[in-house]
Design a protein that fits this description.
α1 links the parallel β1 and β2. The radius of gyration is 17 Å and the shape is globular. It is mainly beta and about 200 residues long. It is built from one helix and 19 strands. A nine-stranded parallel sheet has the order 1-2-4-6-9-11-13-15-18, with helices on one face. Strands 7, 10, 12, 14, 16, 17 and 19 form a seven-stranded parallel sheet that branches.
Amino acid sequence: ANATIRTVNNGSVGAGQYTSGQTAVDASVAGDTIYIHGSQTTYGDVTLNKRLVLIGAGHHVTGTQFNFPTTLGIINLSQGNSTTLPTGSTIKGLNFSYIVGISGSLAVNNITLERNYIQSYAYILGTGWICRNNFVNYFEVGNFKNTIISNNVIRHYVNNSNQPSVIITNNIFLNNTYFSNVNYATITNNIFIEPAPLNYFS
């Protein structure tokens, strides 16, 4: 079956098939794409329990048609049932509080986070995550393999990684950023602007 494209808009400009991000997620099947319009109003929290592509307006919208970001609350990834994992999802162009797992401890693999403005943190929940071109406070790697953290602006730190298959490259680390409990990773071509004192790096 062909994937379906759905649109969401809760703002006063334009229209979408849905006004709620969660309603669009619930109506979708694995492989669908959901475009969430920029809006003056937040869309609230969203829980993913299937493989989806979420696309918003981007992390910096000044100069775009309406200058509205796609703002969500928390993005929850379901970890409670092997038949309802959002493994393989893409989350792109959203402004949200943080991303975390809920309702269990199963790994959620092969997530792509791209061009998001993450107000707090991204908690990596499985192998094969690609995190690129985001603005974020920090990444919690969780000792998972095959993680790529590239071309991000990181405002705080990268934490808990003991895998040699982790790559941290071409990022900008802003004031007082550091690595905590990061071992064996490949770390190349990053820029540190006023990094934390040396004793913060471990």
